[in-house]
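Cross-posting from the modeling subforum.

Setting up a comparison between two proteins and wanted a second pair of eyes on the formatting. Protein 1 (sequence, then structure tokens):
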Amino acid sequence: MKPANDHALDLAFREARSFNRFTAEPVTDETLAALYELLKWGPTSMNCQPARYVFLRTQAAKQRLKPALSPGNVDKTLAAPVVAIVAIDNHFHEHLPLQFPAYDARPMFEANPALATATADRNGSLQGAYLMIAARLLGLDCGPMSGFDAAKLNAEFFPDGRWRANFLVNLGHGDASGNHPRGPRLEFEQAVTLL
């Protein structure tokens, strides 16, 4: 496999920013479908795919989210074209016989709820990151957030308890006027140990 070109690397990482404001340009349902069709290929352990996505596209849907948002996240979230709730399916293992046919892994997770939770949280977070990278590669900008009351959000959107919120991502076409100066990253020597 050949490395990606500089344009793709810039889109996904080097020039990408977390956006606080978005233009009025809409995000179409076709774009959201293309987003899922791309992100779903990101790897997860045993192909478990525990993440679930709720795309809030209307003001009515975003108003349902508003009571759960931290005050500093309300205005930017209500103004974003789309808000993605990246959630976890607590019963992801029910799908494993289809997704992971190598052997029946479902009983392992059914018998060990702590393992199921840890696996779902780790891999669901990976899938949320794949969503952001895929969105950037499709020309969208992202504003990920953890500033919300998960209990309120789950009560509103997932009252049966099967799914639970992990984090939120505002999606759209970014307006750079809302960006803070880009923060520095740790240097290789600070973050990496070679053994």
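Protein 2 (same layout):
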Amino acid sequence: MKRVLPPLNALRAFEAAGRLGSFKEAAAELHVTHGAVSQQVRLLEEWLGASLFERHNRRVVLTPAAKAYLAEIGPLFEHISHATARYGLPEPVSRTLSVNAPATFTLRWLVPRLAKFRVAHPDVDVKVETSNEPVESLPVTYEVIIRGGPDTFYGYSMRPFLSEERIPVCSPALLQRLPLRTPDDIRQHTLLNTSSLPRLWPDWLARANIAALTPAAALTFDHFYLTLQAAIDGIGIAMGPTALIADDLAAGRLVAPFAGPRLASRSYCTYVPDEKSGNELVVLFRSWLECEGAFTHGDSPLEAG
């Protein structure tokens, strides 16, 4: 008979949080972040289809069902701990998750956050390859594919995790040299373009009611990450995707000189082959992406304790 087991990392986080009555203390014991414990507990709740904690300001309380569940699984962790100490078993073998994502997204959003995933899940190795090919055209099968959407592909499940808009951005140093008080001041500046996205500036200028504006100069790059780097370096103004420039805006490397208009853009979504959608690592990584996507836009997931 096949065993029915929940994600074990999530179960470990639940056991520690339930035993200690605090996500914060559980995080300290497990040597992970408070958010990582919250994320793992939410993953287990999704897997079980039931709430495990009642959240009250800075503390958490087990639900009656969760209390009974903890009473049964808690001693098992003690037995595992004693057996491991007794027999000196080696560290578990690392597990690998294959991910394919666009290069600019990987460089500017995913890579800066992967360290947090690694801290929370040290036994999971994420193998990332970059590509802009359509989902159905990829030459090999990946467990998680990140692309714009939402789109529908036969044989794949889709879930959005990160929304964005596009706005003009530039370096603070550029604004000091050439202020941008109104959109019409753009005519004094260099516009930075990406060859694969030729309509960004024309569409924004039309929305700003200055479609006939002629800038002082224009530069075009073949990769979007080069366009954004040119903006950071003070070369000109770029149309920045809010999700991918959130860290730069927060750090002051880029500024948004205008309140609007803002161009709508496609969301980032995960596309997973149907046969892999129940894989523990896929479920874990998807949940983590959605949690990080919420943080990018300032929407903190449920945390307590």
